[in-house]
Fold this sequence. Notes:
Order of helices and strands: EEHEHEHEHEHHEHEEEHHE
Number of helices: 9
Helix content: 25-40%
CATH topology of the largest domain: D-Maltodextrin-Binding Protein, domain 2
Number of strands: 11
Oligomer: single chain
Number of domains: 2
Strand content: 25-35%
Amino acid sequence: MRSFAPRLCQPELRVLSGNGARAAVSQIAAGFATERGYQVSVEFMVDAEARRLIEGGERFDVAILGPPLLDALAAQGKVARETRAVLGRSDIGIGVRDGAPKPDLSSVEAVKRALLESKSVAYGADGASGEHFVGVLARLGIAEEMKPKLRPVPAQYSVEVVARGEAEMVVAQASRFVGVRGVQLAGRLPQELQTRIGFVAAVARESKDPAGARELVHYLSRPEAASILRDSGLEPFVE
C-alpha cells in the first residue's frame, strides 16, 4: 500500500487499483494529495483480488480496474456507474534483466523463436496479461514445448521475478516495467499477437467522502494527466 499524505488530519481517500497502472496511479495520486490537501492510500492488486474485497464489503472510495470488472461491480451497485471515467490502456510486452541482450520481437516468428530459445519465462498466472499469454502460446503452437520453461507467478510480482534473477524473461503489461529496478522492457508483442488492457475508475457507492472521491477520479482522468500516463507505458483516455 502506498500512502500520500502532505499534512496530518486531512481527509483520507482509499483507492483499490489494478496492478498494471501502478506507476501512473502512484504519481497522479501523489500530485492530487499535494494539490488538494487529501491523504490518499492506494492498494495495488490483481483485479480478481479487488473483486473479492469489494464484493465482500470492503470499504473503499475509488476503484481503478479493468472495464469488464468495473462494469460488473456497477451492476451490483458497488460503484457508481455515473462516475465511471477512462484512464487509459496498456499493451503487452516482454522484459529481461537489465544488461541482458534484448530478444528480437519484431514479428510473430521472431517472438516464437525468442520464447523457444529462452530458459524460463515468467507470467502473471492470475492476471489478464497472463491469460492472454497462455492464449498466445496456443496460437503459436508451442504450448506443450514451453511448459517446462514457464514460471506462473502472482501477477502482482511477475516483473520482479525477473529482476531477482528467478526467470530469464517475463510477459506482462508494458506499464508494469516502469520504475522496477533490475528489469527492462525488451519490446512489445507484434500487433498480430497483441491485446490492450484498459483501466477505468469509479467512485464507491458507499464512499464516506463521495465529493472527494469524485474529485480524485476527475483528477486521474483529466487531459493534464496524459503525459504521466504515457511516461508510465499507458495509452491515455482510450477504451
